[in-house]
Each structure stands twice: as structure tokens, then as C-alpha cells.
Amino acid sequence: MDEGAHEKLLHLTFEEAERTESSENAKNSSFESSKFILWLQIFIFTFFTVGGQAAGTLLGRVYYEQGGKSRWIATLAQTAGFPILLPFIFYSSAKNHSEQPVNSASIFVRASVYIFLGIFQVANSMLFTIGVQYLPVSTYSLISGSQLAFTALTSFLLNRQKITAIILNSIVLLSFSSSAVIFQNETGDSGEISLLIGFTATTFGSLGYALQFSLTELAFQKVFKSGTLKEVMKMSFFICLFVTLTSLTGLFASGNWNDLEKEIGEYRTGKLSYVINLVCTAISWQLYAIGSVGLVYKASALFSNVIINLGSSVVPIFAMLFLKDEMSGLKVFSLLLGLWGYASYIYQHYLDDLQAKTSEVKSSDDQADNL
């Protein structure tokens, strides 16, 4: 090979190396950008979940303390805020009207999924309504943390969730956090039977929600394959619509509708306060619904329940500040266990992201070596 040919070969090799390096830099930049967007969306959904859960729980307790009595009204308020999603759904549809849908699930299949998940929502909402009625806010919130342990089991069985040592540690801590409150002698204004009813209802509600969230993740994987934010809002909208119609049916069928006027008139802080409480409760729980379903879509059912459990740990603090709820030493201990368990789970996600980034770099290096 003469000198000119050799220089030309070297020049081509350098150009190829530069193109490869430029391509890899673009890939790394795209990877970092996509991870940032993902975590930003997760942060927003987390804010909706924790904020909606805290506000909805406190307002639900205020409803009963100020003279509200109807479980159907309280259950209805948990889902009646779904109309606020309509502008976002229509805007998303108009923006993407020219795009072809990725999934091909029929309307019948979609409706069946919405109704099936809605049935779980009706039962779970009623169970949690009973729990809020019979338990102090802090006790109710900490017991509902058992939902995480149930979700770990259902996610492992239905969603092939990887259970590492760190995640297992997190689940154990968060489960102990919620169950430790059982050993506290706290009767408040209710008798032991009422506390037993509240505890049982909240526990079964937690189990039901765990199964519902795992089934929701399974639906995203097997049925709703488009993977868009619009799909999250549509699922939340139609499930809440079904639950709202069911709750309205229960309200009229039970005869509670006849007592509604009397209940509003006897509400201690007035009629306007009654309406404001229910409207704010509906909006709060709708934000919670969007956030929790969004976390299932962006991460997993187990991750969504970790955030819900974080909200359960935060609620007692707000209950102590705004409702003068008692915050005993045992509850503080439970709160610290919950925060520790949450930190453990987030650390596992940090390790997963670090491993994904390392694998990406290693794959890029291997491709460069093969050139």
C-alpha cells in the first residue's frame, strides 16, 4: 500500500471514529434527556398523588366531624371530580388527531376493562369511606399502608415485579410502619367495636386497591399499548364515571337521598361550607386518581403504592396541624419507619438507573470496538 492510500485510509478511519463518537454523544444526550423527562413526569404524578391524598383524607374527616353522615355522599365525592379531565382529553385528541393509534383494542374490550376496574373502585372506595368514618385520620392513614405489602405480592404474581433485597427491606419497613399502630390503645370517641369495623374495612380496602393497581398495570401492558398520557386520563375518567354512576344509584336506592336536605341543614359550618367541602374533596381525589394511575403507567403498581404509602405517612402530620389529631410516640415511630422504607425503595431505583446507564455506555463502547 503506497503512502497516499495509507493516509486516505487513516483519514476515513478518523472520520468514521468522529461520526461514531458524535452518534454516541447524541445517544447519551437523548438517554439523559428521556430520563429527565421521565423523572419530571414521575415527580408531577407524585405531587398529585400525595397532595390529593392528604387533602382528600382530611376533608373527608372534616365532613364527618361537622355533621355529615352519608357514606354514599362521601364515596361519591371521591370520584365525582372526573369532569375536570374533559378539557385535557379533548385537547390531547385535537392535538394528535392525525396520528394513528398504536393499540387496536376494541371499544368493547376497553369498556370491559373500565367496568371491571370500576367495580374494584366502588368496593374499595366504600371500604375506605367506612375506615375514615370510624378511625382517626392518622390511624386510618397508617393502617392503609398495608396496601404496599399486598401490592408487592400481587405485582410479583401478575406483573413479574422484580423483588430485590432492598425492595423487600422497603416493603417490610413500610408494612411494620402501618401495622405498628394496631398495638396502640386509641379509642377516641368510638368504642372498640367501631374501631374494629374501621380497621377491618381499611385493611380489606387496602387489599382490594393492591389488586386493582396490579390489574391496572396489566391492562396497560396487555390492552392499552399506546402508552400515552391521554390514555392515563381516559382510564381515570371512565373508571371514575362508572364509580360515580354506581354511587349515585346506591345513594337513591338506599334512600339516603331523602335525608340529604336535612344533612345539609344540620351541617355545623353551614350549607356553603358543606358544598365547598364536597367540591374540594372531589377535586382532591381526582388529582390523586390521575397521579396514582400515572405512576402505574410511568413506573409500576408497586412504585405507585410506595408513593401512596408516603402520602399515608405525611397525612398524620397535616392531621395534627389542622385537625388537632393526636400524634403519639408510636405514630412518630411508624412515620419514621415509613420514611425509611420509602428512602430504601427510591435507592433501589437509583441503582437501577445507574445500572441502565452503565449498560448503555458499555454497549456503546462495544460497538465502537467492533468498527
UniProtKB/TrEMBL annotation:
Keyword set includes Coiled coil: no
Keywords, in A-Z order: Membrane, Transmembrane, Transmembrane helix, Transport
Molecular function GO terms recorded: purine nucleobase transmembrane transporter activity; purine nucleoside transmembrane transporter activity
Location within or outside the cell: Membrane
Transmembrane segments: 36-60, 72-91, 111-130, 137-157, 163-183, 195-215, 235-253, 274-297, 303-323
Cited InterPro entries: EmrE-like, PUP_plant
Domain of life the protein comes from: Eukaryota
Membrane topology value: Multi-pass membrane protein
Annotated Gene Ontology cellular component terms: membrane
Principal cellular location given in the protein's record: membrane
UniProt similarity note: Belongs to the purine permeases (TC 2.A.7.14) family.
Protein name: Probable purine permease
Native organism: Solanum verrucosum
